[in-house]
Design brief:
By secondary structure, this protein is α+β, with helices and mostly antiparallel strands. It has 3 helices and 14 strands.
Length: 245
């Protein structure tokens, strides 16, 4: 009788250990807790905290990407500052589908506004400082996939004037499409960016994304022992703050 109880106790203990191990495996490996996509609502909250003072000059003038607004900390899942990056689905060995997200706060650029049109936008992203939840992934992109050691920057250049909807000068959120050239991996392709923007004083927030086909940019999806496959189509996404002057 005592032996039977002992065996039952051992079985229960083993099941409990397996349950804990299984939960730990899900928590650390399988669960997908990728950062949320950029949203104009979140950017607007950061904009309100920044408290830009209005100059009374409307929206005309020269604007520059502002990296002093908000903060950027991958370990704290804090992406309230200016950033740009990628979002792709990948298949991992023994894990399954995972959303790979890499971002960098190292973005520079300018925007020119004349009348009710954006006439020029030039943005450059430093791909060598992309950070994700995997240091292994980040390191691999230096020599594979993006090959950022050879192609360290991505750029966007507006190719058609962008008409600004009414209301942006009064702080309303507006939705627009921007047509331009996106250069990644040394290859330039025409793209249309879906944008949302809002203005507070002399600081503007712009968020958006554009679908990216790796094959269009001569990028071979990097795979390896743990990465079985990466979708060819993903997103180039960004959250930018511009300040006048």
């Amino acid at each position: 009788m005592a032996g039977s109880r002992r065996r039952v106790g051992i079985i229960v203990a083993v099941v409990a250990v397996l349950a804990v191990v299984g939960f730990a495996g899900w928590w650390f490996l399988i669960r997908d807790d990728a950062p949320e996509e950029a949203s104009i609502e979140a950017a607007g909250e950061t904009l309100d905290e920044a408290g830009g003072a209005a100059s009374g000059d409307g929206i005309e003038g020269e604007w520059s990407v502002d990296t002093s607004v908000g903060s950027f900390d991958v370990s704290a899942d804090d992406f309230t500052s200016t950033w740009a990056g990628y979002r792709f689905e990948e298949e991992l060995a023994r894990v399954g589908t995972n959303t790979a997200v890499g971002r960098t706060p190292d973005v520079t650029g300018t925007m020119s506004v004349e009348g009710d049109e954006v006439t020029a936008v030039e943005v450059e992203v430093d791909l060598t400082t992309l950070q994700s939840d995997s240091g292994t992934r980040d390191g691999a992109l230096g020599t594979r996939g993006l090959e950022s050691e050879q192609f360290p920057t991505a750029t966007f250049s507006l190719t058609e004037p962008l008409a600004l909807p009414e209301g942006i000068d009064s702080g309303e959120t507006v939705t627009v499409e921007a047509t331009g050239d996106l250069t990644i991996h040394g290859v330039t392709q025409p793209v249309t960016l879906d944008l949302e923007a809002t203005l507070s004083g002399d600081i503007a927030a712009v968020v958006g994304n554009a679908p990216v086909l790796l094959g269009d940019y001569d990028i071979d999806p990097p795979t390896g022992f743990s990465v079985l496959s990466i979708d060819d189509e993903g997103l180039f996404e960004f959250q930018l703050f511009f300040s006048r002057g």
